């Protein structure tokens, strides 16, 4: 009988398949999706790893283990070990494959020998690997043929298959900053709010910040402020959609004014509020220079 505590533990993926079929690409995609990924783990170490993840009390909810022919004799026991673990965890074996022609082309492109090639040809190594992996391929829960995928397409496919339900495809950090303190080095996009009147020159607003309602009302009442918000967020929509297609999962949009205290803070918050209405996008706001004056 399945232990209810372990039955509710996170999913486990065993990622395996042909050399050159994209195991590393899928592993990187899983890491970006917040899976805990272990590469080239001896299959016999899988049970101790899962026991540690359960002891972590949910800190490691989803575990992906990449195993392949580098495990040599240990590799052959993967189906047996996987069957024994299914009673305790939700476990799937994902097998990555590609045509011999595509695998040869990929090895030739990176100028590396096949791990089972020895003194023979790349094709010899591929045939040896297919024979060795045949039982594991038959026991796989999911087979992905990557012959027609490039790296970006395979990453997208992995995200479609292994993202947590409801998880965003893209995370945006909207950052306010002051130009006098320098541009943010990690910004993907920068917008300049110095076209708006500066609340600093209004006595009753000078000591306040863009987080105060009076400053917000002042900034948004200025000619061009709301028009900018409408146009800029509309322009960001296809950019963020493109980031999602290209598997760029994080971006920083920097909104600047002179000191990073008034205009940029208001507009960063307004832009973030609008972006948060987009599907599959998580939005956060930071104020880099607020409080420096």
Structural descriptors:
11 helices, alpha/beta, four-stranded parallel sheet, elongated, 293 residues
Characterization of this structure:
Strands 2-3-1-4-5 form a five-stranded parallel beta sheet, with helices on both faces. The N and C termini lie far apart (64 Å). Helix 3 links the parallel strand 2 (36-39) and strand 3. It is of the alpha/beta class. The protein has eleven helices and nine strands. The chain has helices spanning 4-7, 23-32, 46-55, 78-85, 100-110, 122-139, 151-162, 203-206, 213-220, 225-245, 263-275; strands at 12-17, 36-39, 63-66, 91-97, 142-145, 170-178, 189-192, 250-257, 281-287. It is elongated and about 80 Å long.
Set down the secondary structure blueprint:
Elements: H1 4-7, E1 12-17, H2 23-32, E2 36-39, H3 46-55, E3 63-66, H4 78-85, E4 91-97, H5 100-110, H6 122-139, E5 142-145, H7 151-162, E6 170-178, E7 189-192, H8 203-206, H9 213-220, H10 225-245, E8 250-257, H11 263-275, E9 281-287
Parallel strand pairs: 1-3, 1-4, 2-3, 4-5, 6-8, 6-9, 7-8
Helix pairs in contact: 2-7, 5-6, 10-11
């Amino acid at each position: 009988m399945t232990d209810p505590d372990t039955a509710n533990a996170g999913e486990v993926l065993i990622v395996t398949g042909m050399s050159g079929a994209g195991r590393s690409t899928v592993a990187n995609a899983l890491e970006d999706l917040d899976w805990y990924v272990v590469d080239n783990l001896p299959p016999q170490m899988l049970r101790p790893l899962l026991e540690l993840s359960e002891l972590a009390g949910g800190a490691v909810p989803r575990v992906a283990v990449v195993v392949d022919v580098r495990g040599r004799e240990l590799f052959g026991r993967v189906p047996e070990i996987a069957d024994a673990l299914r009673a305790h965890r939700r476990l799937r074996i994902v097998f990555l494959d590609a045509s011999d022609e595509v695998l040869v082309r990929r090895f030739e492109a990176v100028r590396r020998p096949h791990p089972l090639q020895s003194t023979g040809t790349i094709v010899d190594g591929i045939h040896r690997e297919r024979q060795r992996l045949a039982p594991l391929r038959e026991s796989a829960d999911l087979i992905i043929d990557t012959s027609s995928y490039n790296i970006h397409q395979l990453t997208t496919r992995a995200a479609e298959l292994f993202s947590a339900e409801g998880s965003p495809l893209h995370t945006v950090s909207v950052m306010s900053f002051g130009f006098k303190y320098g541009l943010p080095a990690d910004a993907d996009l920068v917008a300049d709010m110095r076209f708006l009147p500066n609340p600093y020159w209004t006595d009753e607003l000078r000591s306040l910040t863009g987080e105060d309602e009076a400053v917000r009302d002042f900034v948004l009442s200025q000619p061009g402020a709301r028009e900018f918000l409408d146009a800029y967020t509309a322009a960001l929509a296809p950019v963020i959609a493109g980031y999602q297609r290209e598997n760029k999962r994080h971006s920083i949009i920097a909104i600047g004014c002179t000191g990073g205290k008034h205009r940029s803070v208001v507009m960063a918050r307004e832009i973030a509020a609008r972006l948060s209405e987009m599907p599959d996008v998580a939005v956060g706001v930071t104020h880099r220079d607020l409080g420096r004056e």
